[in-house]
Write a structure and sequence with these properties.
Blueprint (H helix, E strand, L loop, with lengths): L2 H6 L7 E2 L2 E2 L1 E2 L10 H13 L10 H20 L8 E4 L2 H16 L5 E5 L8 H10 L2 E5 L12 H4 L4 E7 L11 H10 L3 E5 L11 H4 L3 E5 L10 E5 L1 H6 L10 E4 L4 E3 L13 H17 L1 H20 L4 E4 L10 E6 L4 H10 L2 E2 L1 E3 L4 H7 L4 E5 L6 H20 L2
Parallel strand pairs: 3-15, 5-6, 5-7, 7-8, 8-9
Antiparallel strand pairs: 1-2, 4-10, 9-10, 11-12, 13-14, 14-17, 16-17
The structure holds ligand 7TS.
Length: 409
């Protein structure tokens, strides 16, 4: 993979911020977009804009076809056997809310348990809390080790007779930990427990095959994998999706509406109420094409090299604490850290002055922050366009920041 060549496809990376070249180290929040995606979005509005699934004219047919061809591409990309198992949502958050509301209300009752982990994003906690409060169910959490990996020593008892679902992130957005999802799924299934995987941080960075994993649900967002904002995907096993009620009601998802009741369209349309984000779904196909052209294994190898280098140079800084695993075999391109007692927000601001964009805060993982015993962390996250030079510049600038805070120069 030629990073210099890749970077030419991302026009925003040429930009200056505060007069300095932009060093974008916040891809875990959202990735940048290649020209092919940006152009597809504007081409849609220039040449194809029409509502879908209803027009009988050519323009609408064309838009419908393009929209549905993205569904096919998504299914192929994640190894789903059937296109009807791919539901478009607005984002990962909505995909998880769909499962918690539609599957949850039907299957989770008073006294039942929902198993999460201590490293979940709020998107994979709050929907379950809403469900648990409504149904009188209980939330339990798989703890983490001091290295930031899941502590599976008590898994057998946590997967209890009352557990209905295990909802777990494939990769932590704070620690970078890549969880042993396949093993967790097998363990849960052996006890008849369903598994939802929050794949928001995984699918942009390495090859996923939902059929091989045998997960029941897999949720992710297009905007973290080179696609536009406003598009998410819920993969669900068709027989499970068939068995649960719609999430949102309205146009596009019905067969017939009577005064007192309605009937639903078949999958996946039952779960796609209202006009979707048509142009962005269509442009999302170009993001997948881009990832496939480079190759997910190449992307993973590049990010491993970048992360290994980042761990090496950051660990040399006096007073640094790095949260999460140090072994890139179980860690993606996310490095959270604290530098002495400098507040992460101050660090973020100082880095911004030098053109470096990192994230500082609780990263929508407040329960994890409590486990780590910090209010916030600074976080650098990488993608296929990140260079070794950028990581070196981050380390150098952090060194400067430390001097500035402690010696005033
Ligand atoms: N799950 C994980 C693991 C995430 O990292 C995020 C977003 C979400 C769910 C929610 O995705 P959304 O597209 O629905 O918003 N994570 C981050 C982040 O780390 N910084 O900003 C957003």
């Amino acid at each position: 993979m030629d990073v210099k060549k890749v970077r030419k496809d991302f026009p925003i990376l040429d930009q200056k911020t505060h007069g300095k070249p932009l060093v974008y180290l916040d891809s875990a929040a959202t990735s940048q977009k290649p020209t092919s995606v940006i152009e597809a979005l504007s081409l849609y509005y220039e040449t194809m804009n029409a509502n879908i699934h209803r027009g009988i004219y050519a323009l609408s047919e064309e838009a419908t076809q393009a929209f549905e061809s993205t569904r096919k591409k998504v299914a192929q990309f994640i190894g789903a056997k059937e296109e009807r198992s791919i539901v478009f949502t607005n984002n990962t958050t909505e995909a998880i809310n769909l499962v918690a509301a539609s599957w949850g209300r039907k299957n989770v009752k008073a006294g039942d348990e929902i198993l999460l982990t201590q490293m979940e994003h709020h998107s994979n906690i709050v929907p379950w809390q809403l469900l648990a409060q409504e149904q009188g169910a209980r939330l339990k959490y798989i703890p983490i080790t001091s290295e930031g990996e899941l502590d599976l020593s008590s898994l057998d008892s946590l997967l209890s007779d009352r557990t209905k679902i295990l909802a777990v992130t494939h990769m932590s957005n704070v620690l970078g930990t890549i969880n042993p999802i396949k093993k967790l799924i097998a363990k849960a299934h052996a006890k008849g427990i369903l598994v939802l995987v929050d794949g928001a941080q995984a699918i942009p960075h390495f090859k996923i095959d939902v059929t091989d994993l045998d997960c029941d649900f897999y949720a992710f967002s297009a905007h973290k994998m080179l696609g536009p904002t406003g598009v998410g995907v819920l993969y669900g096993k068709p027989h499970i999706l068939e068995s649960i009620p719609p999430f949102l009601g309205g146009g596009e998802m019905i067969l017939e509406v009577h005064e007192e009741y309605s009937t639903w369209k078949p999958l996946p349309y039952k779960f796609e109420a209202g006009t979707p984000n048509i142009g962005s779904v269509i442009a999302f196909a170009k993001a997948i094409e881009y990832l496939e052209k480079i190759g997910m294994d190449e992307i993973r190898a590049h990010e491993k090299a970048i992360t290994r280098h980042a761990l090496l140079v950051l660990q040399e800084l006096e007073g640094i604490t790095i949260f999460g695993p140090k072994d890139v075999e179980v860690k993606g391109g996310v490095v959270s850290f604290a530098l002495a007692d400098i507040h992460p927000h101050d660090l973020g601001q100082l880095l911004d002055q030098e053109g470096i964009a990192i994230r500082a805060g609780h990263h929508c993982a407040q329960p994890l922050m409590r486990v780590l015993n910090v209010a916030a962390t600074a976080r650098a996250s990488f993608y296929l366009y990140t260079t070794i030079e950028e990581v070196d510049f981050l380390a150098e600038t952090l060194k400067k920041a430390r001097r500035y805070f402690y010696r005033g120069f």
